[in-house]
Amino acid sequence: MTLTQRGWIRCCHVRGRKGTLRGALLDDPLHTDPRLAPIMFRLARELMEAGDEGRTLRVEALCDEVVRTATPDPISSAASQDLCARADEYLRANLDASPGLADIAIGIGVDRCHLARSFRRSRGCTIGEAARLLRLRRAFAELVESDLPLSAVAVRAGFADQSHFGRVFRARFGTTPGAVRRGR
């Protein structure tokens, strides 16, 4: 069995903060969630390797990490969601200025490290990645709705050159900016 097969681990005994979760089904999110998949890959590798004295401790630590990652604390989760919503609102309102993490943190009145951790934990991406996605979506709309040259759309989306914009755009949307413009 290879580690990439679907269903490589269907059931696992993991220890949580308040007792034990027994036989928790570990389904598709473990293969797709960017936070859980790498942990599960390491766990599967540990389980499939020949045993040694430290293996049990490593497997137990990985199981604890899965529980911490997959089980959000409801109180901090609500606070994180509120913080992320405020960060999103600030980012959308100031997208043309290309605010960085520090700018957003100051704008909404929180510590930048706390904002970065909360945003990544809640959204699964960094604020910079979220900003890039917003700019790419705006660029997509501009390609469809305006007659701006592709180079101008690239600059408005925060890219220094059109070729870099084209590569990132294609990686995100699976098509080129020129194809979107022609297909409108």
Tag the structure with descriptive keywords.
mainly alpha; Arc Repressor Mutant, subunit A
Q: Give the proportion of residues in helices.
A: 55-70%
| First-to-last CA distance | 47 Å
Number of strands: 2
Contiguous low-pLDDT stretches (5 residues minimum) are 1-28
Order of strands, widest sheet: 1-2
Total discrete domains: 3
Q: What structural class do helix, strand and pairing data support?
A: mainly alpha
What does this 3D model show about the protein?
Helix 2 packs antiparallel against helix 3 (55-70), helix 4 crosses helix 6 (112-123) and helix 7 (127-145) packs antiparallel against helix 8. The chain has ten helices and two strands, in the order E-E-H-H-H-H-H-H-H-H-H-H. The protein is mainly α. 17% of the residues are buried. The protein is flat. A two-stranded antiparallel ribbon has the order 1-2. It has helices spanning 29-32, 37-48, 55-70, 74-93, 101-108, 112-123, 127-145, 150-156, 162-173, 177-182; strands spanning 11-16, 19-25. The chain has three domains: 11-70, no CATH class; 74-124; 132-182, Homeodomain-like (Arc Repressor Mutant, subunit A), CATH 1.10.10.60.
Topology (SSEs and partners):
Blueprint: E1 11-16, E2 19-25, H1 29-32, H2 37-48, H3 55-70, H4 74-93, H5 101-108, H6 112-123, H7 127-145, H8 150-156, H9 162-173, H10 177-182
Antiparallel strand pairs: 1-2
